[in-house]
Amino acid sequence: MFIxxxxxxxSLPGFPRNGNAAYATPEQLIExxxxxxxxxxxxxxxxxxxxxxxxxxxQEVLEVAKRTGRFIxxxxxxxxxxxxxxxxxxxxxLRWYKDCGFKGIGEVCANLHFLDPLVxxxxxxxxxxxxxxTFHIGPEIGNCYGLYDQPGLPQLEICLQRFxxxxxxxxxxxxxxxxxxxxxxHTGRRGYPNYPVTEGRIAExxxxxxxxxxxLSAGSGCNAVKRDRKYGISFxxxxxxRLFFGTDICAPNTPTxxxxxxxxxxxxxxxxxxVFKKIAKENAIRVLEL
Length: 290
Fold this sequence. Notes:
Elements (H helix, E strand, L loop, with lengths): L1 E6 L18 H11 L1 E6 L14 H11 L2 E3 L16 H11 L4 E4 L8 H13 L3 E6 L8 E2 L5 H9 L5 E4 L1 H4 L8 H4 L12 H8 L3 E4 L2 H9 L2 H10 L4 E2 L12 H12 L4 H15 L3
Parallel strand pairs: 1-2, 2-3, 4-5, 5-6, 5-7, 7-8, 8-9
């Protein structure tokens, strides 16, 4: 029924977070997926030091994907890789990963500006190689992870203009908070706004730039379409060809509220069967050429 656009795992238990397992194992994920009706999932390796206690290899993700048949491998290349400069030949790595069977890049969590020359170099090579890219936006520089952009996402817009053939998959609190206007961007970008949506930047950018897609995983993505039911349904209808279901499961017990919400909207008829299928599965198949 579903293809999950965004998940993480570790084959071996790693460093715990707050005394609990930070990541599920592939086996734990498959068990949950069988219960939830999720056929396959895009696995995003954790390589950026800002958000990974122990960096994960792309090869681990590829091995598990081939062994289980349940995972779609993305590779991840830190913008500082190889030579830590804006002319690093990242395309050599990305081309090799694509030849190995990786279907995209991400989740890019380096805490650098979108317009940092290192990040621009990664985007350039990603576009040249022809792999889509999932990014996480952090609300600030320092003490967090994710690419940085100011409220209103002016740097992201420049990137959408500069790299029109690169498919950007938008994700995180600071991204999805921009679905509406924010009375207080400082708090709005760090959490899950619960007030009604007055249309913000995301719809504007998606209308102007067909290379921007929406990763609805995690609490941030679900909150974006659920906090204002009427607007969320309208948003899903308008951008039905560029939205992806996702969970962002990290720890084994990570909640998956979007599953129940999409099923509820489908059952009530508030979202058509066609729109449901596109968001749940078909967009991932088409865009990732599965």
